[in-house]
Amino acid sequence: MQSAFDRRRINGPEDSYHPVFANEIHESSSHVHRIRENRKISDIRPIFLQPGLISQANGSAYIETESMKIACSVYGPRQSKNTAYNEKGRLNVEVKFAPYSCELRRSPLRDAEDRSIAVAIQQALLSSVQLEHFPKSTIDIFLVIIEADGIEGCIASGSIAASTALADAGIDMYGLVTSCATAVKGTDLWIDPTQEESNTANGTLILSCMPALGIVTNVWQSGRIAPSEILACIDACNDRCTDIHSVVAQALLDSAPNKI
Amino acid sequence: MASDLVIPGQPIPLPRGPVPQLGRGIYEKDSQVRASLVGVPRFEGSSLVISRVRPQPPTSNSVVLGSITRLSPLQALLSIMVVDGIPLPPGEEFTGVIRSQDVRATEKDKVKIGDCFRGGDVVRGLVISLGDARSYFITTARNDLGVIFATSEAGATMEPVSWQEMRCPKTGKVEKRKCAKPEGLL
C-alpha cells in the first residue's frame, strides 16, 4: 500500500464520497427496466468527433457522446527502445482516467481497469494498422478519459477516437475501426449502454469492426449472454458500426483540407 | 477537389486498362485497390500514390541528416534528425551508426574514425540497412555524402577545402573530416 502512494502529488483524503441525494436513491431503485428518456433502446448516443485538436501530437481526436468524453493523441512512429529487433511496428496504447472522470475520485496512478481498457482498444486496432510499414518503430496512442460513463462506452468510444487519431496522424491503415457496445437486459438489447444501464444488465458485448472491409477486429463479452443473443448483439452492433463509420468518415473529410 | 478525397479502406476507382503500380498510401486486398491514408490519390509517373508529408522512419536508401553523438575506433553514432528532407519532431530521433568500413568507398581498412568525424558534426548519409535492434546502418561512401557542417576547435564554422579536409576561417587551421561534396560544384 505504501509503495502505491505518490508523494509528489497533493493526495486527497483517503476516501471521499459523493453526496447521496434523496432523489438519486429513488431513481436507482427503479431503473432496472426503466425506459430511456430521450432515445430508444436501439439508438446510440449522438457522437461529436473532432480530429486534430491536440497540436503537439502527430494526430489526435476528441470524442464526446453525451457524458462520455475522451481525448486521444497519437505520437510516432518513433524508434522502439529496449526491445528486440522487430520487422513489424509495435502499437502501444495507454489509457488514463482523469481524477474527476468518475463518480468516485480516481487516483492518478494506473490501476488494473485502465490497463484492461487499453488492451481491449489495442486489440480492436491492431489488425487495422499496416504495421509492416513501420519496422523497428513504435506508435504510441494515449487516451485521456475526461468523463466516463461505463467501461463499455470507454472501450467503444476510445477505439473510435484512437482510429480517427491514427488516420489524422497519417498512419497507414487497412480501414477505419468503429466500435459499438450492447447490453442484454432480460430479452431486450440495449445499444450503447450507460454506466447505470450496464450495471443492471445480464451481460454486455462490445464489437469492433472495419465496416469498409466487413472485417470484425475484436469482440469483447462479459456477463451471461446466450449464444442466440450474442448473434443478435453482433448483428445490432454491426449495423450501428456502419452508422458510426459515416460519422468518422465525415469528421475526417471535414478536417482533411487543413492537413493536406 | 474535396469530392476526390478518400479515407482508409475506401475502394479507389481505377481507369480502364492495366492496373497501375501502387505506391504509398494504397494497398490491394482481394483484388480490390483501396486507400490506406486520408488524401487524394494521384499519379506520380506510372504509380498511383496518396502523398502525405509526415515524418517517416528511415528505410534502406533514404538520405538522412544527423549529428554525431559518439565516436569509437570502430564506429560513429549518429542521431538522425531529418529523413528524406522531412525533419523528425524533437525528441523522436532515430539512432544510426556509421561503421569504419562504411565511411568511404576506397582504402576502407585505413579509415580512422577520429580523422573523419567529430562530435557535433552534421552528416549527410545513406541508410544501407535497418541494422540491429538499436541502430540503423548508415554509409557516407559517396562523393555527396559526409560532413556538411562542422565547427572548429576555435568554435567557428569550418569550410571544406578538399574531400578530407576542412579549414577554420578564424585560425586558418586545417582539420580532418570526410566532407560531402557541396551541391552545384563541378
UniProtKB/TrEMBL annotation, chain A:
Keywords: Cytoplasm, Exosome, Nucleus, RNA-binding, rRNA processing. InterPro entries: ExoRNase_PH_dom1, ExoRNase_PH_dom2_sf, PNPase/RNase_PH_dom_sf, Ribosomal_Su5_D2-typ_SF, RNase_PH. The keyword Zinc does not apply. Residues 44-171 form the Exoribonuclease phosphorolytic domain. It comes from the Eukaryota. GO terms for biological process: nuclear mRNA surveillance; poly(A)-dependent snoRNA 3'-end processing; rRNA catabolic process; rRNA processing; U4 snRNA 3'-end processing. One of its GO terms (cellular component) is nucleolus. It holds the Pfam family RNase_PH. It is found in: Cytoplasm; Nucleus. Its main location: cytoplasm. GO terms for molecular function: RNA binding. Belongs to the RNase PH family. This is 3' exoribonuclease family, domain 1-domain-containing protein.
From TrEMBL, chain B:
GO terms for molecular function: RNA binding. GO terms for cellular component: cytoplasm; nuclear exosome (RNase complex); nucleolus. It is found in: Nucleus, Nucleolus. Pfam families: EXOSC1. Keywords: Cytoplasm, Exosome. One of its GO terms (biological process) is RNA processing. InterPro entries: Csl4, EXOSC1_C, NA-bd_OB-fold. Residues 91-130 form the Exosome complex component CSL4 C-terminal domain. This is Exosome complex component CSL4 C-terminal domain-containing protein.
